[in-house]
Design a protein that fits this description.
Number of domains: 4
Number of helices: 3
CATH topology of the largest domain: Elongation Factor Tu (Ef-tu), domain 3
Oligomer: single chain
Structural class: alpha+beta
Strand content: 35-45%
CATH class of the largest domain: Mainly Beta
């Protein structure tokens, strides 16, 4: 082997050694370190941590029942609106013309009815005069027939009046359908149209949500759903605000049927936020701690100290310089990473646990 090839081999070996050494050091630095901790008594609250989304409890998609050309838009996205406030209009010229015609027919029919009312009053008075003056029975009979004829004519015009009124009412309702009003107090979150565009029949063009009433929706695995009940309280933090602000919430709904998510059964739960804050935004990611059972003065250890094998739980007890593997029975699983020990350990026992856990 010549000297040049020998030197290259030495350099390559040094480089490989440096890479391997760096890998070993890196792996060792990432290995968890263990230490002994004493078994203590603490208050423990069972619950689970889930993630979800904040949504407004009152979200309304609005559109025109019959569609039409948009002529007026009164607000834009982000605007606050009041219940009953006009948001948009579509072209109402045809409906307005039909309403005016129906109103004209109504007024004409009402005039005719009023005329026959006045005529009947006169003819009734004439019949009364004939009776008091001792007129012949033939004259009185003729007058009575005239009254009956006028009354029949009045009924005919009365029917026309009712039909005209019904028609006017119909077109008044149609005119109202060309106006889009907000059914709630809220904020416009979507507006998917512009003036001059055609709104399709029944298609949603504006969305309004109530910003004073929020809830969160989450999916819980079939393993954890048994730990949650209606009325359970929870702490909620939002990524958009930060962990320093905690909102109280309560479980108000649990879906009885599962939702398949990648082959795993999950159940949707709904929590209602107790306190309103204008900083809360619909769609924010929510970190939720749901609390269930609690116990005071329970014997607890860190969950990281448990060793699970063959559906049994063990810990490593350190005493007299030796480690001993002992089976334990667990109880409540706390939201703070602690687990209740029902049997197998005593207060003050030293066990091995991952440092910082």
């Amino acid at each position: 082997m010549n000297k040049k090839l020998f030197n290259s081999s030495i350099i390559a070996m040094i480089a490989i050694g440096a890479i391997v050494g760096s890998y070993v050091v890196n792996r060792l630095s990432k290995r968890p370190s263990f230490g002994t901790v004493a078994v203590t008594r603490e208050n423990i609250t069972e619950g689970i941590n889930v993630y979800g989304k904040v949504i407004s409890e009152n979200v309304v998609d609005l559109g025109f029942e019959n569609g039409g050309k948009i002529t007026i838009l009164t607000h834009k996205v982000g605007d606050t609106v009041k219940k009953g406030e006009i948001l948009a209009r579509v072209d109402a010229s045809d409906v307005l013309a039909q309403l005016r015609q129906a109103k004209a027919l109504e007024n004409s029919a009402r005039y005719d009815v009023d005329q026959y009312d006045a005529l009947l009053d006169k003819e009734e008075y004439k019949l009364k005069s004939l009776k008091s003056s001792g007129a012949s029975s033939s004259d009185k009979k003729a007058q009575k027939e005239q009254i009956d004829a006028s009354d029949a004519q009045k009924d005919s015009y009365g029917s026309k009046l009712e039909a005209a009124k019904a028609s006017a009412q119909y077109f008044a309702e149609k005119l109202n359908e060309t106006i889009l009003r907000s059914p709630i107090d809220g904020i416009i979150s979507k507006q998917e149209t512009e003036i001059g565009e055609i709104a399709s029949q029944g298609g949603a063009i504006i969305t309004v949500f109530n910003n004073n009433d929020y809830k969160t929706e989450s999916f819980v695995s079939q393993i954890d759903i048994s730990k949650i009940s209606l009325g359970n309280v929870a702490d909620v933090t939002l990524d958009s605000i930060g962990t320093g602000t905690v909102y109280k919430a309560k479980v108000v709904a649990i879906d009885p049927a599962e939702t398949d998510m990648n082959g795993i059964s999950n159940y949707k739960i709904t929590l209602k936020l107790d306190n309103f804050d204008e900083k809360i935004k619909s769609g924010s990611d929510a970190n939720i701690k749901i609390y269930n059972k609690s116990k005071n003065d329970a014997l607890v250890i860190s969950r990281s100290a448990l060793i699970s094998e063959n559906n049994k739980d063990y810990v490593l007890v350190y005493a007299n310089g030796k480690e001993e593997k002992k089976e334990v029975k667990t109880g409540l699983s706390g939201v703070n990473g602690k687990v209740e020990i029902v049997s197998g350990l005593s207060e003050g026992d030293n066990i091995l646990s991952v440092q910082g856990k």
